């Protein structure tokens, strides 16, 4: 036990140092994990011994990775990609395998040997490509979708290969067709079963879990669902990663998608790091040095050939040349399932031990070079004459995903959050709310509110709401401890964004200011000011004097309201006429007097009230024309003095003068 703890501690120390160093010199963490495995493995210092249990735990990283990938998809979206998955994917696998097999036959390899090596070299690394796409935000770009579609078909193709390899080693090869048919039947059954569970069972389960409002239970349920789906497909002889992807895809359309991804991410990233460590352990550096010229030759051939096959195949189905080549650069390497197939082929003597070592070296080095090549893809495309402005092309956002910009993020959508949203709408200020109450979330979504499910203290949820591009973040709950955590998470993502916080009182004012909060609104102060206003008004104090005193108090309390309330001039009639006008929102019900009347017919200008804006079916109309006919359901923004606006409201609704 003590030896295991020492090994784990040494592995963590090496991983931390390597990840820190590689990030400092601008290299991706994947290479750091590969270097850690190379150092720790039997071909390096050798303090870590590979074990079946370690490989199994590492494979869970791929399971969680495919589960989070499935959350990005949905059944309609996958059906829309069927030409990529089954068209481009099958072309890439079949053509690559046939050409490599022909080359190996010409080099006088046996038929079985050639087929085995060619088929596993046709596969690419889902772990490397998907992780890099998610980190760079290119998952929804067309080049990313091409790569994902091909990878999905490759993962499906692994299943028959796992069946064919053992049968090829036996004399009774006639059983291949029957075994494949049986495997496909099992695959179809488990896919239908997972689809049914994901469509009818999981949404109800997560709704009940969300109602409990316990973070730990939600995380545990997420892990349970991912592992259950992976285990189910594994029991049916299919890939665990395929089952996790299907489960994620079934939940991809649910309102809990963002929270599920945020919960699974820490486990996914840690286990993915362990997976790449185990890959690095398989590299024999001495063998690489002895056969470096052959390994380099195969890497170069693999690079150019797989890019050419994918680029030509993608263009045949109508894709742009730059997207086709970019997808080819992403998928040129050997994949992690290749290592599984190498072990299986070695076990059944389909390849020799020397060939296995050579293929492992090619696989590890190709995976290690992939992050660098993907990063340099815009430059490579520009040199090939396929891209004139690589920066503009590469940063183009995908049309399929909403991109919030210069908006307001409302943390918590209870009564306070809804009131804020109600005031933002007439001003045409975009906003997005974050709420963890599933019932409130469902009602708000049904009303068309821009809202996502999640806990605001998690950075992934804040990123989903576009905090780094927001003009303001509003925290509507009053729990000080939770507010500290949320403010810290916001500042890590968007250090310069303004934060407005609601508190019960101002006892924690200085602490929140030190954390980076822009303004704190204490409920007790606002309640007392409103109460005093009513007391003074009912005691006969003039309204202008009340407004001046309340404005002075607010001006002394809130630095951002300085200059907004100039109550010193409210005694004059002219200033009173200007300053006391306000905006008022009114919705026209079906039987309102103003319905089916033109604005000009209502003669609102004679009542000294104007229509500032009109909202109709989620469309904002600034300063509508006098000839505009009002309809039931229209929302009017009126401007004028309070008493005049009140009279106009009665007139518009009931026709009363």
Automatic annotation (TrEMBL):
Family annotation (Pfam families): Na_H_Exchanger, TrkA_C, TrkA_N
Compartments, as annotated in UniProt: Membrane
Similarity remark: Belongs to the monovalent cation:proton antiporter 2 (CPA2) transporter (TC 2.A.37) family.
Record key words, sorted: Antiport, Ion transport, Membrane, Potassium, Potassium transport, Transmembrane, Transmembrane helix, Transport
Source organism phylogeny: Bacteria, Pseudomonadati, Pseudomonadota, Gammaproteobacteria, Alteromonadales
Protein name: Kef-type potassium/proton antiporter, CPA2 family
tRNA processing in keyword set: no
TM stretches of this protein: 6-23, 30-49, 55-73, 85-106, 112-133, 145-164, 176-197, 217-250, 270-289, 296-318, 324-344, 356-374
Alphabetical list of NCBIfam families matching this protein: 2a37
Domain RCK N-terminal: 405-522
Domain RCK C-terminal: 570-654
Membrane-related topology note: Multi-pass membrane protein
InterPro entries registered for this protein in UniProt: Cation/H_exchanger_TM, K/H_exchanger, Na+/solute_symporter_sf, NAD(P)-bd_dom_sf, RCK_C, RCK_C_sf, RCK_N
Top-level lineage group: Bacteria
